[in-house]
Design a protein that fits this description.
- There is one protein chain.
- This protein has 248 residues and is an alpha/beta fold.
- The chain contains 6 helices and 13 strands.
- The protein is globular.
- The chain binds S-adenosylmethionine (SAM).
- S-adenosylmethionine binds at residues 5, 42-44, 47-48, 63-65, 68, 86-87, 102-103, 105, 108.
């Protein structure tokens, strides 16, 4: 049975990415002060949110994965808003000054109707002068190519007596810019395999100008676009990812 950010995937994520990259965290921090209300959709197990919480920022979050939220709660019992839900089910009375989606997670949304409706939701949760920061992946590494299928190089993480080995294959469809990875996480405890988990991952790689079209349709505006978290401007050059700052 296929799961989505199930228990082994969530554990693998936490062991391999325990803390947020400093440049990305500093980028988000550069937009906020302690009077602002902040929202992190797709917050996962909270590595970014915790940095804000520790510094007493006013931040809420939500994530669709029960396992990721459970890992968050294990690390910190949070009294603020932390919901296990997807975009359309998130309930809040507040409007936010700053909304960010970290780690390129918006590219996990591959259905075009969902992309548009999620961007519209983000706009509806925003204060009139609020800002949204999110990153999407571009199709630059695949551009001009055929449909492909590759065996991914195996990866593993270790902690104390456990090891999780990740194997899989990834196919890419240039027509819609979506890759599909069929992944298996195998858990070894003291060298003995004790559990396996299958996951399907889809990632959207945007064609040139494609994301801009969704932004305009959602009634949002691009205030800035960067090719990295050091705010190097995006001017249409080849870049694997683009970091957008959006306004109403
Ligand atoms: C790559 S992880 C990033 C987590 C976190 N932002 C971080 O950097 O550690 C992506 C997260 O998006 C969540 N997610 C995927 N689709 C979602 C959806 N439609 N609604 C809410 N969360 C979703 C997953 O459960 C997962 O925790």
């Amino acid at each position: 049975m296929k799961t989505y950010y199930g228990s082994l995937c969530s554990l693998f994520y936490d062991i391999s990415k325990p803390t947020p990259p400093a440049d990305e965290l500093n980028f988000y921090m550069s937009f906020v002060n302690k009077d602002m209300s902040i929202l992190e959709p797709m917050c996962g197990s909270g590595r970014f949110m915790m940095e804000f919480i520790n510094e007493e920022y006013n931040i809420d979050g939500f994530d669709i994965s029960e396992e990721m939220i459970a890992r968050f709660q294990e690390k910190l019992h949070y009294n603020g808003i932390l919901q296990c839900c997807e975009f359309s089910a998130f309930r809040t009375e507040k409007l936010y000054d700053f909304i960010f989606i970290a780690a390129g997670s918006f590219s996990l949304i591959t259905d075009h109707e969902q992309v548009l409706s999620y961007l519209t939701q983000l706009k509806n949760w925003l204060q009139p002068d609020g800002k949204i920061a999110l990153t999407v992946f571009t199709d630059v590494e695949y551009r001009g190519g055929q449909m492909t299928e590759v065996i991914d190089a195996p990866r593993s993480v270790q902690e104390q007596n456990i090891e999780i080995v990740l194997t899989g294959t990834t196919s890419y469809n240039p027509a819609n810019g979506v890759s599909h990875s069929k992944m298996t996480y195998d858990l070894f405890e003291n060298g003995i395999k004790t559990k396996s988990e299958d996951e399907d991952f889809f990632i959207k790689y945007y064609h040139p100008n494609e994301f801009e079209t969704f932004v305009a349709k959602a009634g949002l505006h691009i205030e800035n676009a960067f090719i990295d978290y050091n705010k190097t401007p995006f001017t249409g050059q080849d870049s694997e990812a683009v970091v957008y700052v959006l306004t109403k």
